[in-house]
């Protein structure tokens, strides 16, 4: 899918996100529910509960699984909102998070927001991500 990145010069160059993504009218909108690193109703497996970067990588993989099931890929994600229970850990992990992000998403940077929250539903989750993608019409019929 060919999206148009919107980054007006007058508001400054973004780093690690885009100010806006304009999707073509020929796609279908996919809303991806908040995902985290939980594998079942028991929450996040104990081995990665304190590992922010690993939880981030698993969460991005889960987002991409939904997008791929609908016939899309990383390049079709237009928006992401990241919720974290610990902004300081997020900020101190930016280099490793960037590497994990690029491994999954390549050089595609959708419009993003980052929000600190007091808690998340699933036991051991320290971040959750929700996304919106625009799946090309020709791909979405194959998956649907």
Describe this structure in words.
This protein has 144 residues and is of the alpha+beta class. The chain has a single domain (4-143), classed as 2-Layer Sandwich (60s Ribosomal Protein L30, Chain: A). It is 30% helix and 27% strand. It has helices at residues 52-69, 87-92, 94-105, 137-143; strands spanning 4-6, 20-22, 27-35, 77-84, 111-116, 127-136. A 4-stranded mixed sheet has the order 3-6-4-5. The protein has a two-stranded antiparallel sheet with strand order 1-2. The longest helix is centred in the middle third of the chain and has 18 residues, at 52-69. The mean pLDDT is 91.
Derived structural class: alpha+beta
The percentage helix is 25-40%
Mean pLDDT over the full residue set: 91
Question: What is the annotated CATH architecture?
Answer: 2-Layer Sandwich
Largest sheet: 4 strands, mixed
Structure annotation, total helices? 4
CATH class: Alpha Beta
Would you give the CATH topology?
Answer: 60s Ribosomal Protein L30, Chain: A
Radius of gyration: 15 Å
CATH superfamily: RutC-like
Q: How many domains comprise the coordinates?
A: 1
